[in-house]
Design a protein that fits this description.
The protein has 579 residues and is α/β, with parallel strands linked by helices. The chain has 18 helices and 28 strands. It is globular. The structure holds adenosine-5'-triphosphate (ATP) and magnesium ion.
Length: 579
């Protein structure tokens, strides 16, 4: 049933509604079994992540090893984190906040951020992380959309990006400044934490109580504020165990910043719930630093993203020589398609392949993954996790039709898994559009093969129609980066009178390569051999960098808008850029 043209009530009914049935799916039970829960059936993410481990006698186990930018190191046990987060929860209540209030955090990866996240969740308030690198406008817009009540930030960020408009945001009642000092209208976090008690009983939140708001990356347009509930922790627990091999005591490093959903779900919640030892690095990507951390900290499970992996590949295998990566047991990647090339490369360099997995801000956790349970097919995203029902669909008479294996269509999921978003803030219509005919629609195109593996084709918006062929950018980009000179590639469709669209590629080169006509011809030749003349790019442009979001995703829509002289749209998440 299509929801277009229906009354508001019918539209609401057509979307997914939480029912006790959905929450009692047998696979949800699998996730629940990894948790303790609170009396009267309530469930609290913060409690599951730290307090229960302390209650079960693991208070002395290391929870977090923090590596500061300047080389200092701090180790926090589960007991330390429980106490720090309890202080933070008490502080919120001491300053008049209430259950359900929204606590925003904009700061670098420092221990206070982790205490704030866990304390907010234990307090039954809603945690919303933002990238510290956002400018004043992206910070303000997101805080307005999310009706921020509390902000935790640093003095410098506050002065540069927030002070000028803070008074205009009437919902914002409390600004906490990391450190010992704060401007007059703010509260210094360090002394306030010191005064607060280390005893706090986690709020008895219900499965459907809001816990987290995550803004999407803004790759395809204006970012959306996806709301997640406390019950999501069932999937956080389960997916960490199945897709990332998170076991108690494992040394684990998730390189994502908590400003992006990966950095919170798999950089805070899932690892702590699974009682691992997390590495947190305050610094940004630096090849030697990263290799040094993996070696020195004896990282066993490493979760990163294609953009970082491609940067490592760009530096060449020689740069990795001499490091001891022997502790590594399991490598995983998310955020963008992981080219087959990268899987093979990592196997050679680290002795382990990167396992690609697929999910979205909206899904709240990993949905499809290459796990240890089955062989990797390089270039594929893997198979749905337990409790996840995925299909490939296409529109059919106002409803949807499931496509057979081997056909390309929209990747859809059966609604009801615990970490599914429950709303896009203030955007009911956009939320409703994600659901149709008993499916959640991802907006991504994919194909399932006869072995049940899913293959990413491209975002629905990025699909190119050229001379009667449908071309997914991923296929073309993967062929381009097979060329030894190419580091990264982004492919878009340019309107053309005869072909409908022609394929145009933007590429960056590996270090030591020179961009010239001969190289362009050579790359085009390889693409033609791999893809055929109809699909291979007609034009290849060399760039020093590609426009990317702060979560490391190539913004093809921006390349296209610039190419066609169209408005650039929302670029609040843009990080690297070169026009
Ligand atoms: P917006 O929704 O604001 O445009 P976004 O979709 O990039 O931004 P995220 O939720 O951070 O925001 O990213 C999810 C998207 O990232 C997926 O829909 C998919 O397009 C892409 N993605 C994530 N993992 C993979 C993967 N393993 N392979 C291919 N694409 C992936
Ligand atoms: Mg999206």
């Amino acid at each position: 049933m299509s929801i277009i043209g229906k009354s508001p009530e019918e539209r609401a009914a057509a979307c997914w509604q939480p029912t006790s049935d959905a929450l009692e799916q047998p696979t949800n039970d699998l996730g629940r079994r990894l948790l303790t829960g609170l009396p009267d059936g309530s469930i609290n993410i913060g409690f599951e992540a730290v307090d229960r481990h302390v209650a079960q006698g693991h208070g002395n186990h290391t929870a977090l090893i923090w590596l500061s930018k300047d080389g200092a190191q701090q180790t926090l046990s589960y007991g330390d984190l429980a106490a720090m987060s309890s202080r933070f929860a008490n502080l919120l209540y001491d300053h008049g906040q209430q259950k359900g209030d929204r606590v925003f955090v904009a700061m670098g990866r420092r221990p206070e951020l982790y205490a704030a996240a866990l304390g907010t969740l234990k307090a039954g308030m809603v945690f919303t992380p933002l990238f510290a690198a956002f400018g004043p406008e992206p910070l303000r817009t997101r805080m307005e959309i999310g009706d921020a009540n509390v902000l935790v930030t640093t003095k410098s960020l506050y002065k540069r990006k927030i002070a000028s408009w803070r008074q205009e945001m009437t919902s914002l009642r409390l600004v906490l400044i990391v450190g010992d000092e704060a401007p007059d209208d703010c509260v210094a976090l360090a002394p306030a934490l010191q005064e607060a008690s280390t005893e706090f009983l986690a709020a008895h939140t219900q499965t459907e109580d809001p816990a987290l708001i995550h803004f999407t990356s803004g790759t395809t347009g204006r970012p959306k504020g996806a709301v997640h509930v406390h019950g999501a922790v069932q999937h956080h627990a389960l997916s960490g165990r199945y897709a990332l091999e998170l076991q108690p005591g494992v040394t684990y490093w998730c390189t994502a910043d908590p400003g992006w959903v990966t950095g919170t779900t798999y950089g805070i919640i899932s690892p702590l719930v699974n009682r691992v030892m997390m590495i947190v690095d305050e610094a940004e990507f630096n090849l030697e630093r990263w290799y040094g951390i993996v070696e020195r900290e004896r990282v066993e499970v490493w979760y990163s993203a294609p953009t970082a992996i491609r940067m490592m590949m760009r530096a060449g295998s020689e740069a990795a020589r001499g490091y001891d990566f022997s502790a590594l047991q399991f490598l995983a990647s998310v955020g963008e398609p992981l080219n087959a090339e990268a899987v093979v490369w990592s196997n050679e360099v680290f002795g382990r392949p990167f396992h690609d997995n697929w999910w979205q801000t909206e899904t709240g956790g990993i949905m499809i993954a290459n796990t240890r349970a089955h062989d990797i097919k390089p270039g594929s995203m893997g198979k749905p996790l337990p409790g996840v029902v995925a299909g490939i669909v296409e529109p059919d008479n106002g409803g949807l039709r499931e496509l057979p294996d081997g056909e390309i269509g929209e990747l859809a999921l059966r609604p009801g898994w615990p970490s599914m978003m429950r709303d896009y803030l203030h955007e009911q219509a956009r939320y409703e559009k994600c659901f149709n005919d008993g499916w959640y629609l991802s907006g991504d195109l994919a194909m399932r093969d006869s072995d049940g593996y899913f293959w990413f084709v491209g975002r629905a918006d990025d699909l190119i129609k050229t001379s009667g062929h449908l071309v997914g950018p991923f296929e073309v980009e993967s062929a381009l980066i097979e060329h030894e000179a190419v580091a990264e590639a982004a492919v878009i469709g340019i309107p053309d009178e005869t072909a409908g669209e022609i394929v145009k590629a933007f590429v960056t080169l590996n270090s030591g390569q020179t961009a010239d006509e001969e190289l362009e011809r050579d790359i085009r030749g390889l693409a033609r051999k791999r893809l055929g003349a109809a699909v291979a790019p007609r034009e290849i442009v060399f760039r020093n960098a590609l426009p990317k979001t702060r979560s490391g995703k190539i913004m093809r829509r921006l390349l296209k808008a610039r190419e066609l002289g169209l408005p650039e749209g929302d670029i609040s998440t843009l990080e690297t850029d070169e026009k």
